UniProtKB/TrEMBL annotation:
Signal peptide: none
Membrane-spanning parts: none
Taxon lineage: Bacteria, Pseudomonadati, Pseudomonadota, Betaproteobacteria, Burkholderiales
Species assigned in the record: Ramlibacter henchirensis
Record-linked Pfam families: DUF4325 (PF14213)
Name of this protein: DUF4325 domain-containing protein
Every DUF4325 domain range: 287-341
Length: 351
């Protein structure tokens, strides 16, 4: 049987990430042996690896030598719920990562938080973890085959529609197991990365952290969209620029208004548009009550009106008069308001 003349790039990239350091002077021959291909096919694969940054040539000529490049690709599968997130990080992923200390801290935080969530909450049996890096960006993807995070939240809070789970998740301090979890993991993780995608139960939560590199989140985009054919479980995809200067500390302090004396999670940002299903108007008191549910756990609540052009009088009154007067300890801070929304808020506050 003739040997294959081409190799799938993802398989070769993953193998090379882990083995180039042990085969620096005979990488072509090692690839040919490992995948049972001709030397010519292996040489072509090495050329592609070099072009995509997986290896760097340290010596030329007919006997070249290579070292690991900035691009990396690691993929692993595990069994749930026996996954030890710290062991997996230290044994299977950290050895192949090459990034600045602040980025490694963010990757470590995101990895352990999301793997732990899958282990404790998903009810799944399998876990897939993918790590990819290039000179420009770093990607971390974690997928389980469990019940799906939005269905889990909806069932726990008895929500009438799983889509309202996105609103509850965005507030922070939600957990389905308060004895073992604080409900802060996804909230902070989603703000440490430049882009954070969460997909489950035919729904998608997309968050882009735009603004300065200190993580002050000067703008954000949270959207709700359907996914046809979405497999069971939850998929989390996280991206960060390879030259990011953001730190875990800067993100934590952004939501601890009394830092450094008090590092309690006391500030949150709530995307107001998620209080409505789809693109519906925000008019009723029931929508307002949905929005303010659980926010009395915070000292400062930023209400982000991005994508909301108008609100009804009843909606505004329930939040900025009824709730505000009943919870004087909570500071409500409207952000990104249109002139109409701003006028409606001032009107009900003056009543």
């Amino acid at each position: 049987m003739p040997r294959p003349s081409r190799l799938p790039r993802e398989v070769v990239a993953q193998w090379t990430t882990e083995h180039v350091s042990s085969n620096p002077d005979d990488l072509t021959a090692a690839l040919a042996r490992r995948f049972g291909v001709t030397r010519a096919a292996a040489a072509g694969a090495v050329k592609q690896l070099e072009a995509h940054g997986y290896v760097l040539r340290t010596k030329g000529g007919t006997r070249p030598s290579f070292t690991a490049g900035p691009a990396r690709w690691i993929s692993r599968r595990y069994t749930l719920p026996q996954a030890d997130e710290q062991l997996l990080w230290e044994r299977d992923f950290l050895p192949w990562m090459s990034a600045a200390p602040n980025i490694l801290n963010i990757l470590h935080h995101g990895f352990t938080e999301i793997v732990n969530n899958a282990n404790d909450h998903s009810g799944g049996h399998e876990l897939q973890i993918d790590f990819q890096a290039s000179a420009e960006f770093i990607f971390l993807g974690i997928m389980d085959d469990g019940v799906g995070i939005f269905r889990k939240i909806a069932d726990t809070l008895r929500l009438p529609d799983p889509r309202f789970s996105l609103l509850e998740l965005s507030k922070g301090k939600f957990t389905s197991d308060a004895r073992q979890h604080s409900g802060e993991g996804i909230f902070f993780t989603s703000r440490m990365f430049d882009a954070f995608f969460l997909e489950a139960n035919q729904l998608g939560y997309r968050k882009f952290n735009v603004g300065d590199q200190e993580g002050r989140l000067e703008s954000q985009d949270l959207t709700l969209r359907d996914h046809d054919g979405q497999p069971l479980g939850t998929g989390v995809m996280m991206f960060i620029d390879a030259d990011s200067t953001r730190t875990t500390r800067s993100v934590f302090e952004r939501f601890t208004p009394d830092a450094p004396d008090d590092l309690s999670f006391a500030r949150t940002v709530v995307p107001v548009k998620l209080a409505s299903l789809g693109n519906g108007n925000l008019l009723s008191r029931s929508q307002a009550k949905r929005l303010v549910n659980r926010i009395d756990q915070f000292k400062v609540v930023e209400l982000d009106f991005s994508g909301v052009d108008e609100i009804g009088q009843a909606f505004a009154d329930e939040i900025f008069r009824v709730f505000a007067r009943a919870h004087t300890e909570v500071q409500l801070v409207p952000k990104n308001t249109s002139s109409y929304v701003d006028g409606m808020i001032r009107r009900v506050r003056a009543a």
